[in-house]
Amino acid sequence: MKYLVILLSSLLLVLASKAQTKISGTVRDMKSHIIAGASIQIKGSYDGGVSDSTSHFNFKSFEKGIQTIVISNIGYKAVEQIIELKGEPIEINFALKEEVSELKAVVVTAGSFEAGDKKRAATVLNTLDVLTTGGANADITSVLKTLPGAQQVGDQEGLFVRGGAGYEAKQFIDGTLVNNPYYSSVPDIAQRGRFSPNLFKGTVFSTGGYSALYGQALSSAVILESIDLPDQSQVNASISTVFLGVGLQELAKKKKSSWGFNYGYTNVWPYFQIVKQGVDYFRIPEFHTADANFRIKTKSGGIIKYYTTFSHNQLGLRRPDIDSLILKDAFGLTNYNWYNNLSWRENLGNGWKMNLGLSYSTDHNDIHQNIQNQQNQNIMTGISYIDAKNFTLENKNDLSQIKLVFDKRISGISVIRFGSEYMYAYNKNIYNGLNTLLKDNFLASFAEADLYITNALALKTGVRLEQSSLLNKVNIAPRLSLAYKLGNAAQMSMAYGDFYQKPENTQLLYTTNLGYTKATHYIVNYMKVTTLQTFRVEAFYKKYNDLVKTFPMYNNNGTGDAKGIELFWRDKKTIKGMDYWISYSYLDTKRDYLNYPQILQPNFAANHTASFVLKKFYTKLNTGFNFTYTYATGRPYYDIRYNASALKYAIADQGKTIDYHNLGFSMNWLTNVFKSYAVVVASVTNVLGSNQVFGYNYSNNGQHKEAITPVAPRFFFLGVFLSWGVDRRQDAINNNL
Amino acid sequence: MKNLLFATMMLIAGFVSAQSKYEAGMGKAFEQMKAVKTAEDMTATAAFFERIADTEQDKWLPFYYAAYCNYLSGWMNPNADKDAVGEKAKALVVKAEVLEKNNAELYILRQMIAVQQLTVDPMSRFQTFGAQANEALEKAKQADPNNPRIYLVDGQYKMNVPDAFGGGKEVGKKLFTKSLELFKTFKPASEMHPSWGVDQAEKLLAQCQ
Predict the structure, then answer these.
(1) Architecture of domain B114-209
(2) In whole angstroms, what is the distance from residue B200 CA to residue A332 CA?
(3) Does residue B7 belong to the interface with chain A, where contact is any CB pair within 8 Å?
(4) Residue of B42, B54, B111, B173 to mutate, interface with A, max A Cβ within 10 Å
(5) How far B48 CA lies from chain A's nearest CA (Å)?
(6) Is the ipTM of this complex over 0.85?
(7) What is the pLDDT of residues A649-704, one digit of tens each?
(8) Mean pLDDT to the nearest integer, A352-372
(9) In CATH terms, is domain A112-265+272-325+336-722 a member of 2.40.170.20?
(10) CB A128 to CB B124 under 8 A?
């Protein structure tokens, strides 16, 4: 019996080894490009081979008779062919058809800088980049300003993108609009953003042509995606020259949920004792911020996230009055802000996904300005244009919002997306005792399709419909972009879109008999991206229509345009451990809006802007050194004043500011303190002490002008950030050893 | 009766020949792996293991070795697209995991693949790929805490992590010592099961001294 088996099996083996067939050929794609690494196999046998870098393969097989040969490669549809093996050499050439896949497909990128942890090649900046950009002091907006398209405006907050004013750029967190992304404005001093970069895993800085999911922004959308569950539980503490902070993140044992909170207190009194400021702070800037969050993973792979932050801040500062040698303007501000965001992302099955976003924010400002004498007492001068500078303003801004988006995967990786959003905005102002109230019920619906025609050609088309009860008008905004792949890493994109935005509340206070302001974007972009290098060049034309004019009466007769070309190059490859990027923007823009007597280059627009960002980490020292150098040509400034005899506004004086230079530096040293992971950060802005002028303020009679400059030439920062990971894994390893 | 005997014989014969075909095939593949000189040879070996895996359909080891050889080819060719290699290797591990549930070797391989992809851009990938690597090893430890390769690959990763982030040579030294200790008693389930790593652990321990 045993012998029989051996006999039989050896017989089989002998039979099998009797004749060999040589099989050879080539594997290419439909366009005859070489495919290397494709697998060729005789079905049901181990025989086969791999195509080489010249597309050729060859192997021998002991199989006989009618067989099926299978050719497969990642990203291509497998091909099967019947062959007959008779011992005579066989030569076959195969052509494989590409499968449309997310990994290989072209990405529509015109106008947007995608940043974040997505492995997508379009990644430009991530959280770590924000934290380690020299001179940016971990402020998201400051880092975005090193990318092409943004202006170096230092006297007011916001992103001034491609000839657009700061309020034309909006921020969205998990899909919903953020009403007050920055701390409340102070005249001539730009404020920081309210949100820490650590909250977000992805940032898309879109400088135009963005998706129909977003509206009410003429120039730019900053789309922030919050992090999901943290990697581990941890306790944080920080201490620095200006603030103290503590925080906790607790990740549940099964890693299905987490919660956490942070508290921070900022007081610049000690700092101002050492570094003298150009203005007299009678109330030292002081901030309390507290935030809390929870995140829950759902059964079907979705996630529910809630984030809330509350802040209170106050400050008071005194500056010499421009119309007098002895008087001072005393400006005081108290602000409360409460922001809430709840989002729910869910897989509904069958290719359907849902994104629900709810947000509520309320913002209260109490602002007053008084004319004071040398003894810092409030006085009335009897001179009307001076006394008119005394004011009190209380305002309350609430925004409630719900946004629901459905996502359905259709054939391949193509997706259709549609949904609606509703916003209720409540804006109450009491200016010198005078009450005004604006309420708006805003409704928008949108639909969009991402169509992948082939791996090399993708189309994104959408439309957005908006209605504001305050304006009592409807707008329809079409959007279209397409992308074409030119080679392995290079692609061209184009985008077109109409964008509408309500006039600002400060304008609607005068009349609600206004329409939407409008911008139309045309963008062409070329991009070449490899894992460690990015090159992109983009040209755009933007047409402004229906901008708000304030003279002779409030109307929508303003117009304008912007055109330009932008370059970006980032390289992490050439020098190991060194990362740098260069951006350059050329901008040619003019507009006629507000009280402009004619079409003018606005005072926030420079013709040439360039940034050079360099980061180098020395592993041996555990220290990173980061430099950012920014340059911008001078910006125009105007003294536009009313000419009573001609009954119109005219330019009484104009000029151009000096060029802008800024060298920022920061270093971060990683170490251990009290068993924690510690990062020691030191940074300074404007290292070289360059004279920076953002514009000019004019006296009432126009005889005297004063440069708007930063309140101090430099800002120094020194801080220690500690985190204790209460991660049992580490302990487990140590205990096992 | 005669027919039944014949049928049984054929069945046994068929089984034996199938078994030996698999074993012979794997044996040939192991030999090919030993003889590898270039990254291209390694990819060819990976493809051979994959062909065995695809044909057999119910064996996880050829999938494991196909993934492992792909991973090794990623190191052998300094210009390899490590993300593409990683995706390929991961796809093979997923196929193996369908056949072999909760095996430490597969989790260890997952860690190795994650670390390989991390090295593309350590500064910005540390958080995502580092977490993936740690998670995989945690699962490996739950499945088989005495597998010496757990501590070998962990040490290999940690010795290159800055001291401030819980890495460094001291940490590596402890882990390699622990690995070598476990190698003394480690017995692979069969000749075909993974048994690699002793030489590597010794070499790396020497580097940490």
Answers:
(1) Alpha Horseshoe (1.25)
(2) 68
(3) no
(4) B54
(5) 7
(6) no
(7) 999 999 999 999 999 999 998 887 777 888 899 999 999 999 999 999 999 999 99
(8) 97
(9) yes
(10) yes
